[in-house]
Amino acid sequence: MTRPPTTRGPVAERVVRSDPAERSYRVFVSYSHADTKWATWLMRRLESFRVPDRFHGRNAPIGEVGTRIAPVFRDRDELPTADDLGEAVRDALARSATLVVICSPTAARSRWVNEEVVAFKQLGRSDRVFALIVTGEPNAKLESEECFPPALRFAVGPIGALTDQPIELIAADARPHADGRDDAFLRLTAGLLGVGFDDLRQRELQRRHRRLIWITSGAVAGMAIMAGLAVYAVRERDDARRRQENSETIMARMLDDLKARLEKDDKLDALDSSGREVLRYFQSLHPRDLTDRTNLQQAKALTQIGQMRFNQMRQKEALESFTAAFERTSELTRRNPRDGEALFERAQAEFWMGSVHYKQLDYVAAEQWLTRYRDSSQTLAKLDPGKIDWQREAVLGFHNLAVLDLQRGNIGAARAGFLNELGVLEAIVAANPRDLKTRFSVANTHSFLATSAERMGEFAEALAHFDRQIATLDGLIKDEPESAHWPRRRTDALALKADVLAISGRLDAAFELLTEALRQFEQLAGRDPTNQDLRLVIASTRTRLGACLIGLGKLDRAVPLLREARAALYPAGWQGSASAQAKFPLATACRWLAVAERASGHQDAALAAADESVTLGRQILAQNRGNVNARADAASALVVAGVLAQSSDLARAARMWEESIAVLGEIVRDSYYWRLLDPLLRAHALLGKGEQVKLLAARLHQYGYRPLEKWPEGVVGVFPSEQP
Asked: What CATH number was assigned to the domain covering residues 25-195?
């Protein structure tokens, strides 16, 4: 049995047959590209190493020893995929005095490392091959742990073929439990210089000692300079601290002003100016004055500016601002997970990013971000159970996901979530009656409970929740009369309540509320003509009024109002994502316009409006089939278009009614939501499906539904309620 390679022997103690020093390279470093970091380190150490004076002029494996070991060759590029090393590499090997192999399991399996060793040995320089172990084991039992390529372990024949003759190899071992990196380098260097390891290490220690003395002397001489610099540094530090404190104070004031104006629904053009002023101030700050505090303030500003863009329906720009705020706060919370203020701001960014996707009907992305918001708000609440704002955030985290359940038709889950939320919020308000934000959250939860009740056919309960919402908002208006936010939300509530009154058969009361809501919306828009969201709401309110007028039989007033709503919502008047948001109310306006035009005898105008409504409905449905209102509106549009088509093409009309039923799908099986059941009943009646008509009519009659548009003839005598 042959003796295994020694990894800690005196590398220098070899028989050296040196060649003349005319070779171009003193060292050729062979390595697997998985060990590139080791190769880079070794090359730099070799090229920067200063050879002690006493060794100069010696005849060594690298040639005649001078002040440096350089030049060193290291192949920086991947070797070719051909069957040969390549001319450049062979030439470099031929012009190298020594070969150093960086040994590791990857090097042991590398074809090219092995071939470089073979090629070098074929030149008759087997005694000038050196090894540096970085990982793995020499002569390992497991092949996967072997660090020596085969050409290092066995002799090479004249034609480059490996023989079965093992060779004794002495290697420097850089592994931590062996020589370690520094001693392994000196051991390898001693072999290259043809000197003893201990002798070289002693010289290296002496040189380091002299260098330390020189550094110490320089340090003593620099003490006086440093003392002066220390005084200067203290002054600079104090100046920097003052600058940072001033920056933080200024930013805090600017952000407080921006926040207050946002909460009061100030004019968006004025808010735009404030937002730009904040960003300009940030850009003026020197990087050395940017602390965690100023970075947090910048994130707040970006979130607030995003809110402005959101209200302006500039959703792409809003998302960019919210994303930038999220990135900044994520870095702050990564460094300090218990920084509650940074976590709060990160949660705000997550909420608003979810809101943007929700507005764009992208419920998948909305759910992802709103789930992150819920999780962040839960963590936040645990940091300080006594902080009301943080506890409210934890409640709102669940609220948003309940809203998504509502939009997807999971009404039971949504309602349970809202009821639980209401109980927690009312407890917070009972302990803190002056907490206006939580009181508004109570009002908002009543609104969603009203919508849940409406979709379950419980109209009386829905109206009761809307009344509680309006009463709560009245209290907020009384306590904060200068805010435009609370009146806006109260007007929203009036319009929603009017919808339920209308389908309950109380059309006169609904018309009065909608007329008042429209007046108030237009008044708010007069204060801020740039508010795109208000433009959208005003057009939608006109559509509701038009539908109410159809139910009252006042077609002469309904038609122009619906035409006006359609014109205001037409995509040419909107930009970017605002156009996408306008599609939904535009589809509704076109459908009701088609109904009114048909009833007024304007067949061509009715057909055009119906076709547009169907096209928009299909587009919206393709974007988000999970939205129950999208299904309901698309189905209603198809029913209306089919009614208009039946006089000229009954087969086409029937296809539209069948498509309407297919659009509604299984979601209507146990539903009491009138928006779904109304078009389903009409489609079945028009197709002559009497049994289904009876079942659906009974379900709708159970909770007192009254349609704004007359039922088709197939329902007459089946539906017990009177026609409006």
From this structure: 3.40.50.10140
CA gap 562, 546 in Å, rounded: 6
Task: Tell me whether residue 386 is exposed, middle or buried, using C-beta atoms within 10 angstroms of its C-beta: 0 to 12, 13 to 18, 19 or more.
Answer: exposed
Q: Rounded to an integer, what distance in angstroms lies between the CA atom of residue 144 and that of residue 192?
A: 30
Q: How far is CA 127 from CA 124, 213, 385, in A?
A: 8, 40, 75
- Of 476, 522, 473, 524, nearest in space to 494 by CA: 473
- Please report which residue ranges of 285-410 form alpha helices under DSSP H: 292-311, 315-335, 340-359, 363-383, 388-407
The C-alpha atoms of residue 352 and residue 372 are separated, in whole angstroms, by 11
Dist. CA 402–CA 414, nearest whole Å: 5
DSSP state of 715: G
Q: Distance between CA 603 and CA 599 in Å, rounded?
A: 9
What is the SS3 assignment for 30? strand
Instruction: Say which residue the tokens 């100030």 belong to.
Output: 266
Closest CA to 366 of 346, 348, 351: 351
Neighbouring C-alpha atoms within 13 Å toward the C-beta of 281: 22
Please state the length of the chain: 724
- Count each helix (H run) and each strand (E run) in the chain, helices first: 26, 9
Calpha distance 522→497 (Å, rounded): 19
Q: Give the pairing of strands 129-133 and 154-156.
A: unpaired
Structure tokens at 128: 């000038």
* 523 exposure class (CB count in 10 Å sphere: 0-12, 13-18, 19+): exposed
Q: Mean pLDDT per 10-residue run, the chain (724 residues)?
A: 35 37 80 92 91 88 90 66 68 92 95 92 91 93 91 84 84 91 92 87 69 52 52 47 46 50 49 57 54 80 85 84 91 90 93 90 89 92 86 87 88 92 92 91 95 94 97 95 90 96 95 96 85 88 96 95 92 58 89 96 95 92 82 94 93 95 88 93 92 88 90 71 43
Please provide the distance, in angstroms rounded to a whole number, between the alpha carbons at the two ends of the chain: 108
> Which amino acid would we find at residue 312?
Q
CATH number of this structure's domain 577-715: 1.25.40
What's the CATH number for 239-372? Answer: 1.25.40.10
Tokens of 321: 């601002």
Domain ranges of the chain: 25-195, 239-372, 577-715
Count of beta carbons in the 10 Å neighbourhood of residue 215: 10
